[in-house]
Amino acid sequence: MAEKHQVTLPILGMTCANCVATVERSLSKTEGVEEASVNLSSERAAVRYDPSKTSVQNLVDQVRKVGYDVAVGEAALHIQNLSDQADALRLEKALNSLEGVLFSQANLATERVTVRYVPTIISQSEIRQAIAKAGFQLAEEPTQGEDAEAVARKKEIEHQRRMLVIALIFTVPLFVLSMSRDLGLLPMAITSLPSRPRWMLARRRIWFMTSMVNRASWAQPLISAQTKARIRRAAVECRFQTWRVFQSGRCIIQV
Q1: Contact 45, 27 (CB under 8 A)
Q2: CA 41 from centre of chain
Q3: What class, spelled out in words, does domain 5-70 have in CATH?
Q4: Fold of domain 73-145
């Protein structure tokens, strides 16, 4: 019977109890996982699994599958005298066999190996030790590395901040235009524009929808007469400044 391993995954993107339940459920359903517990305050997931049935990479994929991510560190290490393809493959094999290493690739041109890893499972110093144990020598002296988990969480915060700014750029003008009359944000001369241009624009779009349905009816006999009748009725209602567009017998836009 294979020995069970327990790892801790730093989860990104969790904000509520529903997020915790989603991640925990996804991990628990993974084949080979015996127990999964997610903590919202620490934003970490403790997973006990059978290494003969699943891997850390599979656990990370399960977290990403439900819309969240795992904080991953990346290191580019300079290896001395790395010029043979066989040595590069041997180095990659040694690194990929380490628990917590998700990806490794050796570049003969730059004599560097790029490693992506889960910082709560394996540290950069342990990766350096594994490289030395495999018979390779690092070109630089080991230095105090930065906190890979903190860097990943900082990038996630910056990404969310950019998304918020983009959302505000599109939302604020729409709010001002839609609520300006009620809140008095714009002069009445702007908010009380004649309704005829809007009616003409709506009529053009209704005419376009009607013509498209009529054309499609030659190739799609399943389009019901009731659907076309509703679109034509919406075109008539434009005269009363009411615009409805029907698609498959259902109103999807109403102004």
Answers
A1: yes
A2: 22
A3: alpha beta
A4: Alpha-Beta Plaits (3.30.70)
